[in-house]
Amino acid sequence: MAGGPVILPAAPWERSDVTEEKLQSLVEAGLLRPITDPDEPEWIVPGNESEPRPRDGYVVSFVVFHERGFGSPVDNFMRALPHYYGVELHNFSPNSIAQAAIFVAVCEGYLGIAPHWELWLHLFRATFTTKPGGTRGARKAQRAGGCTLHVRQDRQSLYIPAQLSTSNRRWYDGWFYLRNDGGGLPPYTGRVVESQPEKWGYGVIKVDQPRLEPLLRALGKLRDHGLSAAVVVAAFHRRRVLPLMARRRRLFEMTPGDSIVGVKMSAFALTDDETLRRVREAVDGKPKIDDLMPFPMRPSRGYVSLGIRDVRGSPPPVPEDARRRSVNRARAEEEKKKKDAEVAKRTKKILAREKLDARRRRQRLDGLPLEPSPSSSVSDSSSDGGGREVGTACLEHLPDIREMVPGAPARSLTPLGGGGVPGPVAARPGAEADTPEARVSEERAVSPMGSTVEVERVTVGATPLSPRRVEEVPGSDGGQLALVGTEAALLPPPPPLQRRQAVSKRLHPLFAVSVFSGGVRSTSCLPLGCMLTLGVSFLPARLLLVEDPPLAPRKALKTSSLYRTSSEPTLSFG
Fold first, then answer.
1. How far is CA 507 from its chain centroid?
2. How large is the C-alpha radius of gyration of the chain?
3. Is residue 255 one of the residues assigned to a domain?
4. CA nearest 173: which of 80, 1, 337, 51?
5. By CB neighbour count within 10 A (0-12 exposed, 13-18 middle, 19+ buried), where does 33 fall?
6. How confident is the model at residue 290 (pLDDT cuts 50, 70, 90)?
């Protein structure tokens, strides 16, 4: 603390003056739970030790804390206080416990809401307190106390009058061991507060303060009706409730006739004299009994209706929230790392693909073989088709049709059904052989429906060869076919065309289809994809397929006489 007094080490602990009779009197007064488990008692009287040495699962508490509204097991608001301010139970002063209990009772009993953490931070702060050090300019830290919670000086007008007692002499001598049920309080380590952290002065940020306006207006209304800290202390003592203790019902949920188990500390009503005594010990001044009953708490008849609606809750930050946030933060960071890794992997593939495309473009320009794709995960459909014909992506569901002639290798035979399933074999025009002699070859196949279909492939200006018949092999149950007729000679495979010349022919192959049925001939112009989709094998007629000659424009084909062989209407496949 720059420029402040010198903080001397804290004095040693004083021996406890608590006796079993004193703690039993707290039990009878409804301020402390009775012992129900001799092996793990709710409280333990200190022995002759000069400083606290609690066993595991116990903390150091004080008699005055229970007289101010503290109880165990603690509620979430009391759990949040040491967790937020970074102290232990013995580091709070008696007035800190009283302020917290009064605030919880105001929220529950008069505002009708759960304890509002943002409202607490807006109205209260913590201050580091010391003892005189014995020399000028020196202060001494405290073994017990050191953290005092009080209303902010500039916001006292926003809260009810809360002038608490200034006489708590030798309160630190009344320490004893309290069972820390559920681990709600930090374990005892003997910590001493030696400075004031900056966090103790934090409040609600300015942008969130408008949310507190309804509650602040309600507090002003309660203050105008005479509500004060003395009235609140008297009210929760009359209810026989310890506000900082975990309860089954909040104050605004308590109705006559309900069970007191887990709610009240006693079933007996408190006398006015005892109520007045407890109030005078907690607050400053000497209030009278008539001043302690301006109006009752909720939900008793006669409470002040404040008309609070749509108030956003603000639960206290218990330690589990910090652990939950830590786990969620770690999980979010792990998921972010995974996403970043996936993005980096995709980016790497995209860059590799772009480099591969650039190399392939140079190889095509130089007439060199194209570099294969290094991985199947990188699609090759965007560059050269990956061996796929341009413009045939929509025909991938159709069977592959290969040129078939006597003596062709077995790997060139592909059934119509795909895979290795036996079936009729057809020819794909203009794929492997691209010469006039090869394009005039004719094939005849047996239709699955039993009729014979003669398929002819002729080219304008070419001399057709004798037709060959492909019929089913007798005794074969898989629909195997065999060539009939020997007039067609086996032609050697022509040299492959250059890539650039072949691309223009594979864009849109068109065929003229002539159907002979009952002596009538009808002609239609269909693309290869439509023919394959419809299938030529189911038509009980004779089809004539006419392919474009090399480098012939499509417009010239449309005017050819082959497309207008008769005056009959054109057959429509659709």
1. 49
2. 48
3. yes
4. 51
5. buried
6. confident
Strand, coil or helix: what is 249? coil
Model confidence over 330-339: pLDDT tens digits? Answer: 888 888 999 9
229 and 337 belong to one structural domain:
no
One-letter identity of residue 503: V
The answer as to whether 571 is a domain residue is no
Same domain, 269 and 374: no
Looking at this protein, which amino acid is placed at residue 452? Answer: T
Per-residue pLDDT tens over the stretch 452-493: 333 334 334 444 444 444 444 455 444 444 444 444 444 556
The reported pLDDT for the residue numbered 274 is 93
Q: Which of 85, 81, 53, 49 is nearest to 65 (CA)?
A: 81
Q: Cα 106 from chain centroid? A: 37
Same domain, 145 and 14: yes
Q: Do 468 and 481 contact (CB within 8 A), yes or no?
A: no
Structure tokens at 208: 């969130």
Contacts of 464 (CB under 8 A, 6+ apart): 440, 442, 456, 458
Q: Which residue has the tokens 């004719």?
A: 442
pLDDT in the model for residue 257: 79
pLDDT tens for each residue of 44-90: 999 999 999 999 999 999 999 999 999 999 999 999 999 999 999 99
Q: At what angle do helices 229-238 and 272-282 cross, to 10 degrees?
A: 140
